[in-house]
Amino acid sequence: MKLSVPVRRRLLGAVTAAVALGATLVCTATAGASSSNAPSVEPDHAMGWSIRAHEGVAGKPAPSLLATQTPGLDVSHYQGSINWATVKANGAKFAWIKATEGTSYHDPYFSQNYLAAYNQGIIRGAYHYGRPDVSSGTVQADYFASNGGGWSRDGLTLPGTLDIEWGTAGEGGDCYGKSHSQIVQFILSFSNEYHARTGRWPVIYTATSWWTECTGNTGDFSSTNPLWVARYSTSVGTLPYNWGYQTVWQYADSGIFPGDQDRFNGDYSRVQALANG
Does residue 213 have an active-site annotation? Predict the structure, then answer.
């Protein structure tokens, strides 16, 4: 169900260009990259920014669904400076923090958030915003693993996540100008390279309708990659192709925690099990 409210997207550094007298003032969004030399085809996105327009109204999960689920969150620099002691006091048990996007963007708040969450004893991991229009999945997995997306068996580090969702018109449209097989190949090559680099399969964050549209329900990752599904509703709904259950459910874009609100499908021991591999 598509929302009537605007897509939640915060643009960085809007550029204005005035044309001849009496012409319309045109505003265009600049790329939210870490330097002015970064390619304009690679803007900075927050996890789930495109989900809201496609996946229904953000809501609270029914209480019965929360009994065996563990609360957590995901954040990027859009949340600014976060008081992780308060996040912990409010009950968060896990978090994923944006590290990278494409092949050159590194979130400026990643290191701060990653260390602060760790110091509070919150099990945390990094996520990478996938851009199939920029490079292969192999190249992006290497960039991610080398820039905060690694994994260690310290009990507080989750495997990295590939965030894959709708693109914009400037990025080639919903599916980044790629065929079903090309999208599947991007995900597969990212997954394989991340596994080769870290020994862990990455979590895949996506939405069922994007998966249907852009993979054509081809490619089966259910036996290797944990699923993190986004659906802003009171139930998780139908899952992407061949996954029998979700590991994590992102159910709202605001709530008690900064950023997006998530539920791990199981008690805290299951979060620990994922962290420990």
Answer: no
Check if 74 is active-site.
Answer: yes
**Is the whole-model pTM more than 0.90?**
no
Residue 109 included in any domain:
yes
User: What is the domain-level CATH number for residue 122?
Assistant: 3.20.20.80
Catalytic-residue membership of 142: no
Choosing from 74, 107, 133, 171, the catalytic residue is: 74
Beta carbons within 10 angstroms of residue 20's beta carbon: 5
Q: In this structure, which long-range contacts are made by residues 113-118, counting pairs with CB atoms below 8 Å and at least 24 apart in sequence?
A: 113/75, 113/82, 113/84, 114/148, 116/82, 116/84, 117/84, 117/87, 118/156
33-89 residue pLDDT tens: 333 333 334 567 867 556 656 665 545 555 456 668 999 999 999 999 999 999 999
Establish if 98 belongs to a structural domain.
yes
Of the residues 165, 174, 253, 260, which is catalytic?
165
Q: How many domains does the chain have?
A: 1
Catalytic residue among 44, 107, 163, 171: 163
Domain holding 207, by residue range, is 15-276
